[in-house]
Design brief:
187 residues; mainly alpha; Nucleotidyltransferase, domain 5; two-stranded antiparallel sheet; 5 strands; globular
Length: 187
């Protein structure tokens, strides 16, 4: 059995916003995002520009942005979008924890998320838990391959799969992001 959640709206939303909002180059953008306090923008974003994946799986879901004023800056829109995606992860994490109680390791994957230290920090702060940064650029593909290896028979004699236990196929982490208790409280 495989239980989990999938989000693709994060990377797609980040790409769309950075292409259309005339945001600064990455170093300046990261500095501006990092300088903003959590939830300080007054915006609410529904990140469903391409429909919703987990947990509702609604291809007809649509994105929305509310709270705009004449003072709203493009970087604030991006920060609000990043926070909204982090809250989607938190929703999935809560549902997984209810289905499978116990301590779990959270591993961040996806090129947009992994490319933004600020977004990784937002995710950890929203979750209130440490987040391991995947060193595997194609972590979803690697995970699917590990699951397949665990199911393939090693021999015709009914021996365990080629990978006797999934823990032997762990994907290495490139780092760890710890939550900030005060920012978690705000979120």
């Amino acid at each position: 059995m495989l239980l989990g959640g999938a989000l693709s709206e994060g990377g797609n939303l980040y790409d769309w916003l950075t292409r259309h909002l005339r945001l600064p180059d990455p170093p300046a953008l990261d500095a501006a995002l990092a300088a903003m306090a959590p939830d300080s923008h007054g915006l609410t974003v529904l990140p469903f520009l391409a429909g919703e994946r987990s947990p509702g799986w609604s291809p007809r879901a649509r994105g929305a942005l509310t709270g705009l004023t004449l003072a709203t800056e493009p970087v604030a829109i991006l920060r609000a979008a990043m926070e909204s995606v982090a809250f989607r992860f938190a929703l999935i994490a809560r549902r997984l924890a209810a289905a499978i109680p116990g301590e779990r390791t959270i591993v961040a994957t996806g090129s947009a998320l992994l490319g933004s230290p600020v977004w990784l920090q937002i995710l950890s702060d929203v979750l209130g838990r440490p987040v391991l940064v995947s060193a595997e650029p194609e972590a979803s593909l690697a995970g699917a391959a590990l699951m397949a290896l665990a199911r393939l028979p090693a021999s015709e004699g009914g021996q365990p799969g080629l990978l006797a236990h999934l823990s032997r196929g762990r994907v290495p982490a490139a780092g760890r992001v710890a939550p900030d208790a005060e920012r978690h409280r705000v979120y």
